[in-house]
Design goal:
5-stranded antiparallel beta sheet, elongated, alpha+beta, 2 helices
Length: about 150
Amino acid sequence: MLYLAQVRKYSSADGIELTLLAEQRADQVWAVHEAKPYTVAPQALPLIPPLQAGMWVLVDCDEGGQPLRIQDAQDWVLNLLRNLAAQGDVKQWVQTEENKIEQWRQELTLKSQEMSIKNLELETRRERFEAEQAELEKHWQAIREQEQA
């Protein structure tokens, strides 16, 4: 897991006290945390660059939550800002994404309506089939009774 964190305290003897700010959920998808403390014990410290209080870092952790890598997040944040700036007007981008979402919602609504209609048609056919089956069973019963008589 990859986290964006802020260094609170750093000591080679005491380890690092971090505040987790955000967690990467998928490529380009981040969940923002309420300030969540995270302490890395000195024996668990990977090879790290010089750190200072207040600095933002990227912390790559294994599945057990142990840090594998800690790196300065400055270049990452600047690259993120450059990418946003390169995309042009963020409001336009948000509007485009909202339009896509609305289009998907409408498509899903239409497909849901189509499925409901098909389900009603199937239910009607099933009821008709059951009625015809009951009718055939009555005829078979009548034929059996005639044969026995």
